[in-house]
Amino acid sequence: MSISPNRTNHSYRSEEIQQILNLAIARQASSDDFSRSQLVEIAAELGISPEKLDLAEQEWLLQQEAQQKHREFNIYRRRQLQQSFAKYVIVNGFLVAINLLSAGSLSWSLYILLFWGLGLGLRTWNTYQLEGDEYEKAFQKWYRKQQLTQLTQSIFTKVNNWLKP
Hints:
By secondary structure, this protein is mostly helical. The protein has a domain at 130-160. It has five helices and no strands.
């Protein structure tokens, strides 16, 4: 791969500069961590004001927090799916056993097995869909429930501490 010798006259768009610098930083510090002071120094060398750096850092922290909440939500959904699958196996195993013992073949239990299995399949599909309106609605519902639970626990703790002599 050859690079043209006349790179000084080439101009770059903002996103291209960001991509090039990201690659350079990744190669420079493949396993190194940067301190906050190094971040400030790099920003200063790039002509980024401390105020803009602070805003970008705050935005990045909020994005990291949101990503963490989404990871927690995805783990919650997978656990719920695992519990549903365990219930499916236990209950349907019991029903199939009763059906086999009483009739000698699968008859009525097969319908329960199939319809419940269809519902479980749809739930599995929804659990592993990590984008879209339905996912966002489910996430928002879970997040509000989490916040309400935390608020309730906080109030209970404060009241409990206040009532202690």
